[in-house]
Structures are given as structure tokens and as C-alpha cells.
## 1
Amino acid sequence: MEEKKKEKKKRKFVINNPFFDFMGEIGDWVGLNILFLITSVPLVTVGASLTALYKVMMKKSRDEAPYPAALYLRTFRQEWRQSTALWLILLVSGTILGFDFLYVSGAWRHWSAGILRYWNVGLGCLLLVWLMVFSYVFPLQAYFENSVKNTLKNAFLMSVRHAPFTLVLVAANSLPLLCLAFSPVLTWLLTPVYLVIGFSMTAGLGVQVFERIFAEYIEEYVS
């Protein structure tokens, strides 16, 4: 009597559950946030860090980033030179505008020269333009290949053309600075959030907006 041999089939263990998918996504965001903070420590590397973060978030939104950390580090190295040039331009210009705005804001309260008030309004408008450009520069660098000059120009033009979206992006990007300047309590409450997930969450939500905006500018080639 022959014994029947039972074939042992190997079964692949797959967890297909929305909860685990969500937790995996949160884990990726936390890991990317930590990478962003570490690579931004020298300050001069913030531009490359932002470009890498937006690049990974864009790929993740299309399910094209199976290894987010590896993609982040690779993009950081590849985009280092041009992203750093963009960052230094924005850092120097933003610092000058910020200090001028704060100085004039304090000065016109003590001086009777009314012209300082108008000058302060002008500086405030320039700061708003700076924030608008800043909100677009590094996502553009992550999405498209272009020169430093054209990236800055396109960031300005897009920010004006898509003003409603731009205001939302500016508000999201400015939240840490606004809390730091006006609300010590909110700063204390939000600091742990940004240390854990805040920056990657801001970039991830921003990508949903940029995907919609940039789709208008992507040229499709038919082979």
C-alpha cells in the first residue's frame, strides 16, 4: 500500500489591513522626519534636506518609494549642489528682510517719522513674497530639472498664479515661526510634534497640493 505524499505548499505571510498600512505610513513619516532633522543640523544642508524630503513624499504618493530612507539619502547626495545654492540665496535674503522688518517695526513706535510705517508695510509685503517663493522652490527642485535662476523665477510665477493654494502652503510652512514669535505655549506644545513627525507631515500634505499644481506644467511625450 503506497503512502500518499502530501505536498507542503509554502504560504506567503501578508498583512493586508488598513490599520497596519496606516501604521506603516506613520512609521515612514517618523523615520523621514528624523532623517530630515539629522541632515539639516549643519544648517547649510537644509536645502538638500528639503528637496530630498519632497522627492520621497512625491514618490510615496505614487507608491514608487519601497525604501524611503534609501531614496532620501540618494536624493540628498544628488541634489546637494543646486539645492544648497537655492537655500543660501533664500537664507541670506530672508535674514536681511527679517532683521529689517523687526528693526523698523521697533523703530517706528519710538520715532515720529510716519514714512517708517510705510516702509514697514513694504518690508512685510517682501517677506510675504519670500515665503511664497520659499514654499515652491524645493518642491520644484525635487520635481523638475532646471537652473537656479529659472527655479526661483518659476517659484515666484507659480506662487502668484496659484495664490489660493499658495496661501495655504505659506500658512503651513510659517506655523513654527509664527508660534515661536507670538505664542510660547503653542511653541512648547508643537515642538515635540515637529521633532517626531511635523516636518515630514507638512511635506506630505504639501505634496498633495503640488501634484495638482505641477500636473499643469508636465509635458507628456508620446513615443
## 2
Amino acid sequence: MKCLKMKLKKIIKTNKKYLVGCSFGPDSMALVSLLLNNNISFDIAFINYHLRDESDYEEKELLKFAKKYNIKVFKKEVFYKKEDKNIESWARKIRYDFFKEIFEKYKNEYEATLIAHNLDDLIETYILQKERNSYVTFYGLKTLIYKDDVCYIRPLLSYRKKDLEIYCIKNNIPFNIDKSNFDNKYKRNKIRNEYIKNLSDKEIKSILLEIKEGNKKKRIENKSFEKLIKKNRLNVEKCKKMDINDFINLFYYYLSLFPFFKNFSKNKINDIYLKLFLNKNIKEKIDGSSYYIFIEYGYLKIDKIYESNYYFELTREGNKYFRFLVDTKYNEIFSNYDSIIIHPVSRDDFYSYKGQEKRVSKIFIDMKLPTSYRKIWPGVYSKNGELIYLPRYMEKVRYTNKSFLVFDIENLIKIK
């Protein structure tokens, strides 16, 4: 029987260690068995959601199985509350946050997290995408994805769910079936139980061919969008020349480069398109994220606007210069001061720039300082509060000791 000869995709490396998301269902237990049979090193991440009477039984049986094969299990217990609203979204967030937490704690130990999504899940996702008429950059499910700096691999996408169950039964692999999967009040369950389950192999092949052709067109469309996104931003004038539907598709692709992709509606993008046409300024925070949409220097951009209240006071060490990477002439600027203070510059302060006294806010515009950095850009002050140095911003050369004082902006961003 085909299911007894299942093999892992070549993307799984025998010399690497993996984390496996395991629910004790037949899909994830089949994956665990295949990893053991292929002598691949792995640990398990298990979450007890306490949503069903069998949850504790599943935890107990999984731990017993893991102990038998000397497998390490990371366990988490959570309890659903009414204020969490959508159970599926809540559980998904808990799950991926848990994977990320493990990866951050055990850095460089795992190559990736393995997820036991199967062929039925892939087709189910595709059907939902088509029914909702939602914008996607890819139809179905990808074998490999990155989410919050964690790599996820789905090695079982070529196998039907029923084949994975038969594999477990024939090989005496313990598992339990979640009875809530048969509750058709959930859209996914209804599609799974009333449609996908009854598909013939011929019908499956036809759907997979449709998905393949759709993704081929998507790749061509995505390449055209990539050409319009320069330095992670969109040219406003080019956007204004686009048809509204083309702009919506472009902007959705642009959004897909960020973690809040699914939190955006077409109405919101329509509103942005209208503001572009009316030459209105755009600067608004994206709900549920730390990012903003704004226009600067003729470009529509999505980025963080960093904030930090750092404060450094530096004093001279004997007759030595202050400890900066600076050109000699800037050492001369600070030579008359026994101490200097560095903190975010006030945009209302004045500074001598190109032979004129100018307000800092005007200087920011002159040197085209990105909006993202304006709240954290450093100023060097004397003890009595005089702004004695304002570092320049250069897009192509951010760090140099040839023309201006060096500040490592990436480190200032990290300051809490």
C-alpha cells in the first residue's frame, strides 16, 4: 500500500535538528513516526488547549510515547476565555507564539519547525481563498515559509489525510482524532467533511493542476509588482496613474512583505488610493502593529517610526578626545568641552547648517532624513543645553568617519 512507503521530502536534512508541532492527531503522529524511521533528530512542541474532554488524555499518551523514544517535549497549557473571541484565531496565535518562544530561547539549535499540514489542508485552503475572493500571493499552502524569523516546513503536503491515518494504524502509531473536526459549524470543517473527503484521485489531480496554473500566473504578477517597489516603497505618481483594481493588487502585494498582511481591508486601500488622488497627506498607524503608512519625498511607504528616550553623558578621559569615531575636525569641535550629552534632538532647536542658523525640523527636510528616524535622531549638546553637533544623514553611506560623526542608528533603535 502506498501509505506504508511514505517518505519525507528532501528538504528535511538528516544532519539537522527540528522542532515538531504535534497535537497527537494522526497527521502529526505520522510525521513523528517518519522522523524516527529516518533517524532525524527532533523535539516536540505540544499545547493543551483544554477545549475538549480528551485534551488531558492526548497529553498523557503523547508524553508516554515520547518517553519511550527519548523525545524531548515542550509543553504549554492554555485556557480559552470568551473575550478571546474567535477560537481558531486564538489557538493559531498561541501556537505560533509558542514556536517562536522556543526558537528564541534555544537559538541555533533547530533548523526549522515542522508542521503536519497535508494535501487535504492544501486544497481546503485553496477553496477558502477562492470562496472569499481574497487577495493572496500564493494559492494553497507553501512547503516552506518564514514567519517572525522562524522557518516552517510542511513535509506532508503530497499525502491525503486518510493515507496518514492508515499509515498510523498499519504501523501501530498511537493517535487520537479531534471530534470537533466533525462539527460543520466551522467553515473549514464543512468543506473538509462534505467536499474534500469525497474527492476522487482524478478530481484531486485536476484541482492541483488548477492551483499550479494559478500560482504560475501569480509568479508573473508578483514579478511585475516587485519592479514597482523600489527600496521598499511605492512611487506616488506611478500609483496615481494606476487603475484602482491594479493599485489594490499592488498594495496587497506590498502589504504581504509585512507581518500584518491579513489585517487590511479593500476599503482601507480604497481610502489610501483616494487620498493619493486628492494629494492629501497620509500618516497613520496600522491597527495592531508598530508600523505606519506615510508619504515622504514623493513615495508611499510602510515602516516603523522609532521612539527612544536614550541619554548619554560622556566626559573627557584626561587629555584624550571623547570616545567617538570622528574625523579630526570634529574632535576639535568638542575640544572646548569637558563633557557632552547625547539624546534625541529637539526639532525646535536651531543649528548652524550650511552657513545658516536653521531649525532642526528644516534641516531634516534638507538632508531627507527618513520619517522613521526623526524621533530618535541624536543631537550632541553641551552641559548647558546648547546643540553643538547634529550628525548628517546619508542614504548610501550611513556609517563613515570621513565626513561626519558616526552614530550607529540600529543600536539606538534597540534602546528601550
